[in-house]
Amino acid sequence: MNGLHLTADLSGVDPALPPMTDPAALAALCRDAIAASGLSGVAELFHRFAPEDAQSGITGVVLLAESHVAVHTWPELGGVTLDVYVCNYGSDNSARAEALLDALLKAFAPCDAAVQRLTRAAASTPRQ
Amino acid sequence: MNGLHLTADLSGVDPALPPMTDPAALAALCRDAIAASGLSGVAELFHRFAPEDAQSGITGVVLLAESHVAVHTWPELGGVTLDVYVCNYGSDNSARAEALLDALLKAFAPCDAAVQRLTRAAASTPRQ
Hints:
- Two copies of one chain form a homodimer.
- Chain A is an alpha+beta fold.
- Chain A has a single domain, classed as S-adenosylmethionine decarboxylase (4-Layer Sandwich).
- Chain A has three helices and six strands, in the order βααββββαβ.
- Chain A has a six-stranded antiparallel β-sheet with strand order 2-3-4-5-1-6.
- In chain A, a hairpin with a 2-residue loop joins β3 and β4.
- Chain A is globular and about 45 Å long.
- At the A-B interface, β1, β2, β3, β4 and β5 of A face β1, β2, β3, β4 and β5 of B.
């Protein structure tokens, strides 16, 4: 399956931003950014780590028809990691993936973001 | 946040393997492999695409205390994609991530697996 996997490792994010510690705010951010990008969410899961204070982050994922988006927040460090992975089956979703990552980066407004782009593809070995 | 992200794109997987089309079987496989590797699952979500026949795959994720595991199956193509992403905060989880990926690869027994290893790290820019 050919695909594009974008990762971004953010630093210097304001820990007071609601999506850093509020699962509902992070879910809404992801949902809106996915819809705006033209990708399709099919299910979502957001987990808040205990204790639920300003030091505890969220780990969450939205499963897409096109693969997945994952977000982990580290309010105590001002850090966030983002994954946007899309398969390119039927149509090329690369531009949608880039638009989604851009929207998430804009929302978190980090001082710095280390972005990597990974082309994914299986060998075309048919099963014997 | 320093971390290790392993991706594997599998081809030539037997579509009759239960984890290819049965969400409960895939969830059990992930749960067992995570436990054996020494990582810690905190929540999970598995979605079966419609129609629920031999041609429809599963997309799923287990959120870890250490980040996440994601699996997408494509029974119609004999394909599977795997992600194992661990942060190395507090301790180095790289060996556990490799063990988990090995266990999943062994279970899916592909004809071919394209494995990539991505070192993830944010710049250490403190927020001003």
